[in-house]
Amino acid sequence: MDVKSLKRATELAKFFIGTIIKEGDLVVDATMGNGNDTLFLAQTVGKEGSVISFDIQDLAILNTKKLLDKNNINNSKLIQDGHENIDRYISNEICGAMFNLGYLPKGDRNIVTKPETTIVAIDKCLKLLKRNGIITIVIYYGHLGGEDEKEKIIHYVEKLDENKFHVLKVDYINQTKEPPILITIIKK
């Protein structure tokens, strides 16, 4: 791990998930955004693997498609639907999933993830997750409704059965202005 991975929660999430997933795996980007996690996952699982990515916004689909095309990636399926509907599209076991909560960078800050749908999505991912699979959740909460989502997500993951899951929480404790929080869940 390099210093860059420690400076940003998203890079640390990639580091953690990158130690678990491998070529040929089925993985999920539950919050597609601008496609950076989709690209990372697609490159990590390779041509034999698959990435299923979710977002509700046209701009997210467009930006991600452009990024994947630019990098000659064709092992990803982009779905314009809420991540809470993951089970409509996936029935096979997944090896990993990534969530970046909040709003689309450079997008409409009024369109944000919501705790009610996010918790449903996390729960469904946990049910689809294979043994030793991983879920990363980066929580951005400096926007309207973000604090509520943060508290509800943390409360939810704190209650996961310790006999079934390892749950790690990473805080940037000396940073001000609502630094992101990383939650990592590994299924035993």
From TrEMBL:
Name of one Pfam family that matches: rRNA_methylase
Domain of life of the native organism: Bacteria
Protein's recorded name: rRNA methylase
Protein's organism: Crassaminicella thermophila
